[in-house]
Each structure stands twice: as structure tokens, then as C-alpha cells.
Write a structure and sequence with these properties.
This protein has about 350 residues and is mainly β. It has one helix spanning about 245-250; strands at about 5, 25-30, 35, 40, 50-55, 60-65, 65-75, 80-85, 95-105, 125-135, 135, 140-150, 155-165, 175-180, 185-190, 195-205, 210, 215-220, 220-225, 230-235, 250, 260-265, 270, 275, 290-295, 300-310, 330-335. Helices cover about 0% and strands about 40% of the residues.
């Protein structure tokens, strides 16, 4: 509602003499948009003519918000407080979602309910974000995209997707986002350190395994992250990464097969017998995939090469393993049947001929 009043006729807005028959008034409009004005005397008798209504003015405005109130909530999924970061120039980070609200406000701080539809000028490209460590901007690279922004009654519901990449290999970093909105007429931001997320540089590691052909063999396959001490350790907090044999593991046996990589759920030939990977943990359990290959049976000795396949679904878990020239960021390993690890009491054993 338009609020305010006119001063005395014959005075300007400063109270100085002005043209007779004119008056100055100060009014406020707590909304956004465009209005028209119709002067009238709705009660009384103006110079004996009764109630008087003047001509409707042209459009007055556009009135715009004085500022925006911004809130946001990061969601890295699975109830965890970390997400996997990428490495600039090497691999992308794991995407995480951000939801929030952007509220159009007048000078009194009240919501301008008309800021919707054609009057809402703030677009998805007008909402930006910056990674922060405390009060300082983080050194890494944030990829930010607002997926949707819809205003109703002055409040915009926002969904966005973000990912982060370190500029160099390093330990976990806790960061929060500074989310900013600016439509060219009004602006606002939220810089809340209480909404920090831990970014971890991660990888998926495979190790060799061997044993008798009479028993199943467990192959270490675990998610790791770069620790502050400068080395990788198992990521026990990863209970979220979902892997499948068919999509994220490949097998081959150059001894008996064509040597081509096969899907991870393929039954492989080993020395006249066969072995297959049992279903793995999906999602991981405390960072472990629980990868196990079945025993091929007595007298069936040999090996199967194993390679991860993460580029499509989990590129943030790749690493510069360089164990396969065709897939340098994938981890490799081998499970061998018919090998004996020797006595645990031997520190060093050498044969003499």
C-alpha cells in the first residue's frame, strides 16, 4: 500500500514557497513492480465541486528490491560431511548439491511479495558462489551451476550443483561457500562458516593377492584419501560410493583367453578351471569393496588381471597409477591361484644354486 502525505499547497518539498496550487508529498511503496497514480479527493467538497478525481498517471517505476536475503545448505549425500575433490588439470571433483532460498526485501527488510513472474529479474546466471576458508577465499577451483531458481511471493527456491578441485595434492580442507545474488538492481550474499564441508582428495586402490587354488582369495580394493600427513590412507568414512562388477571392474587372462578386457562379472578361465568375482559391497563399507574371487579348484593354477573402470561414473577416484598405458588413471591388480606366500617367520629367503 502506498503510504505518505502531501504538504501544504504553495510549498515545495523543502517547505519553501512554490507555485500556488501545487503541493509536494513524500510517499513509500513497499513492493516491487510498476504502479499508476490517480489523484482524488474522496471526501469533502473541493471548491464547491464535490469529490474530485484526476487523470490516471502513466506507469511509475519500476520499483526493485533493496536487497536479497540468501540462505543455502550443501548436501554431500549419505549423511557424510565430506566430498571428493578433484585435482586441477588432472581430474574433476565429485558433484554435490546445494539448495537454498533467495528472498527479495525492501528497505525495511520485509519480503516484497510481488517479486515473482515478470517482476523477478534474478536469473540462474546471477547467483554465484566462492569457496572460502574462514574469511579468505580458497585457492582451488569451484565449478558452480544453478540448476533452477523459481520465485513465488518474493521467495526464490534454488537448486545448484557444485564441485571443487585442489590446485595441488594436499590433505583434507574444510570449506564453506559464499553464495551471492545480484540482478543489477539489488544484491545480497551469505557467507556462513557453519556450513563447512570437508573436501578430500581421493582414489580407489587395487592390490595384488595370491593363495592356493583350493580357497577363495580376497583382493584389497579400497577407497583412500590423501591425509594431512602426506600419504594416502583408507577412507573409513566412505559408506556412499556405489560400485558394480559389471560397470566398474574389468578382467582379463592373457594365459588362456584372448587377452581382451572383459566385464567384471565375467567368469574367467584359470588353468582348466574357472573363477569369478563375488558380489562386492555397494555402497562401500568403511571404504572397502569386499572383493573376493572364487577358488578354481585343485590343480587349476594361474592368474587373472584386474582393472578398475571409473572414468565414466567416478572420475574423482581415479589416480595417476600408470599401470596400463590404455587407462593410466585406472588402478590395476592381479589375483594369482597356486602360489604359497611362505612362512611368516622368514624375513628374507634366498635360494643358492
Amino acid at each position: 500500500m502506498l503510504a505518505g502525505s502531501f504538504g501544504s499547497f504553495g510549498e515545495d518539498c523543502a517547505g519553501d514557497p512554490a507555485t500556488a496550487g501545487t503541493a509536494c508529498g513524500t510517499f513509500t511503496w513497499p513492493e516491487v513492480g510498476i504502479v499508476t497514480l490517480t489523484p482524488s479527493i474522496a471526501s469533502g467538497n473541493y471548491l464547491g465541486a464535490g469529490n474530485v478525481t484526476g487523470s490516471v498517471s502513466g506507469n511509475v517505476g519500476r520499483f526493485h528490491p533493496a536487497s536479497f536475503g540468501v540462505t543455502h545448505t550443501p548436501d554431500v549425500g549419505c549423511g557424510t560431511t565430506f566430498t571428493y575433490a578433484g585435482l586441477s588439470g588432472s581430474k574433476v571433483g565429485q558433484p554435490f548439491s546445494v539448495t537454498g532460498t533467495i528472498t527479495a526485501r525492501n528497505v525495511a527488510g520485509a519480503t516484497t511479495a510481488n517479486y515473482a513472474g515478470a517482476f523477478a529479474k534474478l536469473g540462474t546466471g546471477d547467483v554465484t558462489a566462492m569457496p572460502m576458508q574462514g574469511a579468505a577465499a580458497a585457492a582451488g577451483v569451484l565449478t558452480w551451476n544453478v540448476d533452477s531458481l523459481t520465485f513465488a511471493a518474493g521467495v526464490g527456491a534454488m537448486t545448484a550443483t557444485a564441485r571443487y578441485a585442489f590446485t595441488a595434492e594436499g590433505g583434507p580442507q574444510a570449506m564453506h561457500l559464499r553464495v551471492m545474488a545480484d540482478d543489477g538492481e539489488a544484491s545480497g550474499e551469505e557467507n556462513d562458516s557453519g556450513k563447512a564441508v570437508e573436501y578430500r582428495l581421493g582414489r580407489l586402490r587395487l592390490q595384488n593377492a595370491y593363495g592356493a587354488e583350493l580357497a577363495d582369495i580376497a583382493v584389497p580394493m579400497q577407497a583412500e584419501y590423501y591425509d594431512a600427513g602426506g600419504y594416502y590412507r583408507r577412507n573409513d568414512a566412505d559408506n556412499c560410493t556405489a560400485l558394480t562388477l559389471a560397470d566398474h571392474l574389468e578382467l582379463r587372462n592373457p594365459q588362456t583367453d584372448s587377452g581382451d578386457w572383459q566385464s567384471g562379472d565375467t567368469t574367467m578361465t584359470v588353468g582348466g578351471g574357472s573363477t569369478a568375482a563375488l558380489p562386492i559391497n555397494s555402497p562401500l563399507v568403511s571404504g572397502d569393496a569386499g572383493l573376493v574371487f572364487t577358488a578354481p579348484g585343485a590343480g587349476h593354477t594361474g592368474y587373472v588381471d584386474i582393472r578398475t573402470s571409473l572414468t565414466t561414473d567416478h572420475p574423482w577416484l581415479g589416480h595417476a597409477w600408470n599401470c596400463d598405458a590404455a587407462a593410466p588413471s585406472e588402478a590395476c591388480g592381479r589375483v594369482s591361484f597356486g602360489l604359497y606366500q611362505g612362512s611368516r617367520h622368514h624375513i628374507y629367503l634366498r635360494e643358492r644354486y
